[in-house]
């Protein structure tokens, strides 16, 4: 067995970085392209993550987008929630706005996490907190580059925010920490693996993280649908949540 990494945050970061590196190597092989490339990158990165977590944390539960789910994890206090390649379209198109998510929910809360952005490259993590850049005069709301939600567009118009199209959920969430955006509002449908690691990292950096009704993000449910979220600077949360409630 490989040497055990005792620190959960260090393990999450190393898993995310390594999985991203593996996915990049698959892409740079030049042997496949498009949707087939996305599937291959997902599969190879997932195989690595599942095996590594089984070796490093054999008693923990795991929920992965790319592996068959079982109810065994529901009895676990600690559950790793992973998305081997978040933004397979962007990955397959050789863009940089895709990510690898490795999150650890403890008691249903997103406590530990790492989000790798291999195209940057950068790994943002819960144990290494960066100071947030100051907000600009005109706020920026990051939205899906392929299917921006009507709620996001309406809120952005109401507060005079500029829309910033971007790929994966992880890339969008991390764009606030990286100073590329200020608000990430999503209501178009997601699953636990889409936002567990990003939520953990965002919370560690002092950002507001919630459902769009203001309730907390919780994980390791039987139904893994977690369709909406708001990640933003704390000073903007109340205004955005109020607008969402009014528009709905």
UniProtKB/TrEMBL annotation:
An example molecular function term from Gene Ontology annotations: metal ion binding
Residues involved in Mg(2+) binding: 65, 83, 86, 194
Protein's name according to its UniProt entry: Inositol phosphatase
InterPro entries associated with the record: CysQ/Inositol_MonoPase, Inositol_monophosphatase-like
Keyword presence, Zinc-finger: no
Domain of life of the organism encoding this protein: Bacteria
Cofactor(s) for this UniProt protein: Mg(2+)
Pfam families for the chain: Inositol_P (PF00459)
Keywords, sorted A to Z: Magnesium, Metal-binding
Organism: Croceicoccus naphthovorans
One example of a Gene Ontology biological process annotation: 3'-phosphoadenosine 5'-phosphosulfate metabolic process
Keyword hit for Transferase: no
